C-alpha cells in the first residue's frame, strides 16, 4: 500500500511522491492524517533544505497534524484504531538533567516528529506516551492542527508573564505574532501590533489589538512612533519579538520602558549575533528572556484554548490546499504571501470531529 507525501530533498526542493505506508513499531501508532497545516518553520526548512535538530533530507516535511489512529504498535497501551487525536511534534525524554528539573523544552534528547504532509504518519513512542491527545468531541481536525504552534506561544508567555493593564507591543504579524496578540488580549493587556502586512494587521485588530502600526520594526522612526504611544512616551511594559532577525531583537530593546520585559521569541538564523545597548539593560534594568518550543503542559493548555473557543481558529487559517499544492504554497509563503496559515488536506480527508 502506498501514500501521497511531500518529500524534502534539499533547499527549495520539495517533491510530491508515492511512498510505502509506514508500519508502527513498538509503542508507536500510525495516524491517518485528516489535516495538517503550514508553518513558518516549515517554510524556513524548505528554504534551507534541512533543520539542525528536526529534519534531515530526504524526509517527509510537516509537523502540525491531527487525524485518526489507524494502527497500533505493540505496547502502545491505551490507544486503539479509530480514535481521533492530535499529536504534538515532539516529546521530552523525562529522564535527563533538564527533564528532572521539569525544563522540558530543554530536554537533551528531545524526540521530534516530521511527516505531516502525507496521508499517514508514524507517531514515535515518546510522543504517544507524552503528547498524543484525544480530540475533543466535535472539534474540527483542521482547527486542532493549531495546537502545536499555539503551545509554543503558551510556553512563551509562561516565560514572559503579561498582566492585566500592561502595555504590550508584539513585533511581527505572522501566525505566532497573532497568537501572542490574542493571548495578551485575553490576559487583559492593551496590545499594539507592529508588522508589515496590512491584511494581517486587520486580523490583529479583530483579535483585540488596540493599535496597529504598519511598517518595518527596524525603522528607527517607526520605533519612536510606537514608543510614543505607550505609558506617556516611556515605552512598553512588555515587548514580544516574533520576527527572528537581529535588527528586530535590537528594536525590541529600544521599545521597552525602564524595568520593562523584552521577550525574544523569533529564532534568528544560525551563527547570527546582536549588539544590544548595554546602558539600557544595566541602567534601565531591563529583563530579557528567550523561549524555545513547548512543553507537555503547554500542549494541553493550547488544545483547551482552541476547544473552548478562546482562540478562534478561522482567524488563523486562510484556506485549504492539497498535498500536491505544497511546493507552490511554501514558495508563496516564502515570498510574503498574505495568507496566515493553510490547512493541508490529504486525498479523501475525513474532517468530522472527535
Helix content: 25-40%
Assigned CATH superfamily of the largest domain: Medium-chain alcohol dehydrogenases, catalytic domain
Total number of strands: 18
Mean residue pLDDT: 95
The H/E string reads: EEEHEEEEHEEHEHHEHEHEHEHEHEHEHE
Number of helices in the DSSP assignment: 12
Radius of gyration, in Å, reads 20 Å
What's the CATH architecture name of the largest domain? Alpha-Beta Complex
Quaternary structure: single chain
Which residues form runs of ≥5 with pLDDT under 50? none
CATH top level of the largest domain?
Answer: Alpha Beta
Core attributes:
354 residues, alpha/beta, Quinone Oxidoreductase, Chain A, domain 1, Rossmann fold, 2 domains, 7-stranded mixed β-sheet, 6-stranded parallel β-sheet, 12 helices, 18 strands, 29% helix, 27% strand, globular
Task: Summarize the model shown.
This protein is of the alpha/beta class and 354 residues long. It has helices at residues 40-48, 97-100, 125-130, 141-144, 147-159, 175-186, 198-206, 220-228, 246-255, 278-283, 296-307, 326-334; strands at 2-10, 13-20, 29-37, 59-60, 65-72, 84-87, 90-91, 111-112, 120-123, 132-134, 167-171, 190-195, 211-214, 236-241, 256-264, 287-290, 317-322, 341-345. Helix content is 29%, strand content 27%.
Question: If you had to describe this structure to a student in words, what would you say it looks like?
Answer:
This protein has 354 residues and is an alpha/beta fold. 29% of the residues lie in helices and 27% in strands. It is built from 12 helices and 18 strands. The chain has helices at residues 40-48, 97-100, 125-130, 141-144, 147-159, 175-186, 198-206, 220-228, 246-255, 278-283, 296-307, 326-334, and strands spanning 2-10, 13-20, 29-37, 59-60, 65-72, 84-87, 90-91, 111-112, 120-123, 132-134, 167-171, 190-195, 211-214, 236-241, 256-264, 287-290, 317-322, 341-345. Strands 3, 5, 6, 9, 10, 17 and 18 form a 7-stranded mixed sheet that branches. A 6-stranded parallel sheet has the order 13-12-11-14-15-16, sandwiched between helices. It has a 3-stranded antiparallel sheet with strand order 2-1-4, covered by helices on one side. The radius of gyration is 20 Å and the shape is globular. The protein starts with a strand and ends in a 9-residue tail after the last strand. The model has no long low-confidence stretch (mean pLDDT 95).
Amino acid at each position: 500500500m502506498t501514500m501521497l507525501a511531500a518529500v524534502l530533498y534539499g533547499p527549495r526542493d520539495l517533491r510530491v511522491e508515492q511512498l510505502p505506508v509506514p508500519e508502527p513499531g513498538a509503542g508507536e501508532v500510525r495516524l491517518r492524517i485528516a489535516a495538517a497545516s503550514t508553518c513558518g518553520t516549515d517554510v524556513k526548512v524548505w528554504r534551507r533544505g534541512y533543520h539542525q535538530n528536526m529534519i534531515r533530507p530526504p524526509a517527509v516535511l510537516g509537523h502540525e497534524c491531527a487525524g485518526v489512529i489507524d494502527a497500533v504498535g505493540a505496547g502502545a497501551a491505551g490507544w486503539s484504531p479509530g480514535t481521533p487525536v492530535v499529536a504534538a511534534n515532539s516529546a521530552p525524554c523525562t529522564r535527563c538533567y533538564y527533564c528532572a528539573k521539569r525544563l522540558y523544552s530543554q530536554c537533551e534528547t528531545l524526540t521530534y516528529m516530521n511527516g505531516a504532509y502525507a496521508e499517514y504518519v508514524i507517531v514515535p513512542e515518546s510522543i504517544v506516551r507524552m503528547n498524543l491527545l484525544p480530540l475533543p468531541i466535535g472539534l474540527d481536525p483542521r482547527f486542532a492542527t493549531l495546537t502545536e504552534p499555539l503551545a509554543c506561544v503558551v510556553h512563551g508567555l509562561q516565560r514572559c508573564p503579561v498582566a492585566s493593564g500592561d502595555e504590550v507591543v508584539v513585533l511581527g504579524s505572522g501566525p505566532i505574532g497573532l497568537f501572542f496578540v490574542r493571548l495578551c488580549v485575553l490576559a487583559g493587556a492593551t496590545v499594539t501590533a507592529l508588522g508589515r502586512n496590512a491584511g494581517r494587521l486587520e486580523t490583529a485588530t479583530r483579535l483585540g489589538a488596540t493599535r496597529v502600526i504598519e511598517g518595518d520594526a527596524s525603522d528607527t522612526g517607526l520605533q519612536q512612533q510606537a514608543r510614543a504611544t505607550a505609558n506617556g512616551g516611556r515605552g512598553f511594559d512588555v515587548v514580544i519579538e516574533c520576527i527572528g532577525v537581529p535588527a528586530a531583537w535590537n528594536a525590541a530593546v529600544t521599545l521597552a520602558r525602564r524595568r520593562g520585559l523584552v521577550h525574544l521569541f523569533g529564532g534568528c538564523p544560525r551563527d547570527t549575533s546582536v549588539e544590544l545597548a548595554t546602558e539600557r539593560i544595566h541602567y534601565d534594568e531591563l529583563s530579557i528572556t528567550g523561549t524555545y518550543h513547548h512543553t507537555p503542559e503547554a500542549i494541553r493548555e493550547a488544545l483547551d484554548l482552541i476547544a473552548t473557543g478562546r482562540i478562534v481558529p478561522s482567524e488563523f487559517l486562510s484556506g485549504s490546499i492539497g498535498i500536491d499544492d505544497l511546493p507552490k504554497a511554501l514558495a508563496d509563503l516564502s515570498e510574503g504571501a498574505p495568507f496566515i496559515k493553510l490547512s493541508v488536506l490529504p486525498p479523501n480527508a475525513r474532517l468530522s470531529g472527535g
